[in-house]
TrEMBL record, chains A, B:
Taxonomic classification: Bacteria, Bacillati, Bacillota, Clostridia, Eubacteriales
Coiled-coil ranges per UniProt: none
The species this protein was found in: Thermoclostridium caenicola
Transmembrane regions: none
Pfam families: SpoVAD
The protein, known as: Stage V sporulation protein AD
Molecular function per GO: acyltransferase activity
Length: 338, 338
């Protein structure tokens, strides 16, 4: 049974456990600093399929299979698959799970989707509606480019604030019981729109949403930021990260030394020509499901606040001159001593 | 605290209550048989905005305001807004709630979204994560046509199995306590794809998903279909309704006399030139939030199984030759004697 604390935070009384996770990524991600943590690195952007969209869908399907295999579970152990992606109408997920006879909850939170999925999964388990949930998201550089920007063939120039959509899928299997890190609190964000209209500056657009959710989480829980070993934003990239750092400082919270961003971790920003770093809901999903989970299982990290951010625009609304509404959901992952 | 029964059904131990609801619809819907139940009928497809997409977003925003006004509540009483729509990247909802400082959970289930929203809201309330949720969806004929099919200016012919996307938004305010009908069970569907590739035959594509979820619900709960006064599909339309009727009979369940479809109710199929009837997630949302809720409050209906169905395709995947994955979520609404 969950309880609420403060305005936006839910306390999970029997904190659901991260039973395990897996991540499959693209070639470029497999050339980055976190390569050895990923379960599989695919050879090309098509992954044996005929289109980028189908390749992304297969990333999700295979990542679920890999997670179940690692955890010694079968699909029939799962009560809900909670998943979404960046494709038009969330189709990577819908097509991925056609052959898995499990209740499916489709979600959309742009790049915040992984935290949204974990938040929902944790609340459903703690509330008794599920024993086990698969929380997953994916993104794919090529499907996202033609969905949100231009076809790859157009060869558009990248602006100084742009980011590189991660090709990859991550899955976390959450359960009622087990030995892994637990989700103790979730803070689901409200929509924040500070008027930024440049769809190539998502880090700048999303940083205020991350700030709002972090401050709300701290206020609701009575915690200070140094309660956490790591505050991990989803994909603000280097530009958004610097804005969030300043916004937090302006609000009397100093994140130095305990703040990182998945978008800055998954690529080598000096070497890999990704401008401000990674983005896409596959970014936080893969970094969390592979690298962070490993560090938590090794007790190198014991308290992590995942704050995945999403830019909730579409090409249509941007073409109509609108700004970018953003959101950030926070999930508190903690190793709790037995 | 919720419990599970059978493979896909959740029993809500303290069934959340429908505190109230509202629906705002377009001119064509306001010319249909249910006109007098709707809270507002807008004059034109633009609703004072410059684009169809913005008009749809305003439908959601105004429907929330109307619901809160009718229920004597304010936005700050709501713990979660759970909402989605058919626009590319669910933008009607994301843009609608930019100025409402409430935790937002974005969902996507195509035309099944209203049941998905109610299912999630009910589980979150019963599990203690929320005291009150606003469950909402919208669709808009003009934004859906250019999103899924062709621009209106193209003047495409409608095929014999086509449906007419409802312009409208519906909102149900769910709470822990109150006097309205209660949500006692939810059965979240698995994805079903029977290989239909015609995006103008969504009723036919979705009917097997509705059948699967209804049979699953009956099996999980041990109920027979005549437990319900009304089984209400979201928007199969007349063609899909006839297929579902046959599929249920083939499985030994006779729905005659207690089965209706929102898509066949919201328009006069003889007079209004909508071919097989209404569709879009605004269809079940407005029929439920206005007409069905009124009948339940008057005790003319006491046990309703809402089964909203969704076609989870996108234009991209259809152009790539794929079939249509479908889903149906069921929510059991019951007047429970004091």
């Amino acid at each position: 049974m969950s309880t609420r604390t403060g305005k936006q935070t839910v306390v999970l009384s029997n904190p659901p456990v991260v039973i395990g996770g897996a991540a499959i990524v693209g070639k470029k991600e497999g050339d980055g600093p976190l390569a050895r943590y990923f379960d599989q690195i695919i050879d090309d952007e098509y992954f044996g399929e005929k289109t980028f969209e189908k390749a992304e869908s297969r990333l999700l399907r295979d990542t679920l299979a890999k997670t179940l295999e690692k955890c010694g579970k079968s699909a029939q152990d799962i009560d809900f698959i909670i998943s979404g992606d960046l494709q038009n109408q969330c189709t990577a997920a819908s097509y991925a799970f056609r052959d898995v006879q499990v209740s499916f909850i489709g979600i959309y939170g742009a790049c915040s989707t992984m935290a949204e999925s974990l938040a929902l999964g944790a609340m459903l388990i703690d509330g008794g509606a599920a024993e086990m949930t698969a929380c997953m998201t994916s993104s794919h550089f090529c499907s996202a480019e033609r969905q949100f920007r231009y076809p790859l063939e157009f060869g558009s120039q990248r602006t100084p604030t742009s980011q590189w959509t991660v090709t990859g899928a991550g899955c976390i299997l959450l359960g009622k019981q087990g030995n892994g890190p637990r989700i103790t609190h979730v803070t689901c964000g409200a929509i924040i729109d500070m008027g930024i209209k440049d769809a190539n500056n998502m880090g700048g657009a999303m940083a205020p949403a991350a700030c709002d959710t972090i401050l709300r989480h701290l206020q609701d829980t009575g915690r200070s930021l140094d309660y956490y070993d790591l505050v991990l934003t989803g994909d603000l990239g280097s530009f958004g990260r610097s804005i969030l750092t300043r916004l937090l400082k302006d609000n009397g919270v100093d994140p130095e030394g305990r703040y990182e961003d998945c978008g800055c971790m998954i690529f080598d920003l000096e070497r890999q020509d990704v401008v401000c770093g990674g983005s896409g809901c596959g970014c936080s999903a893969t970094v969390l499901s592979a690298y962070i989970l490993e560090l938590m299982n090794q007790k190198k990290l014991n308290r992590v606040l995942l704050v995945a951010t999403g830019a909730l625009h579409s090409p249509t609304w941007i073409q109509q001159g609108e700004s970018i509404p953003c959101i950030a959901h926070a999930v508190s992952l903690e190793n709790i001593p037995e």
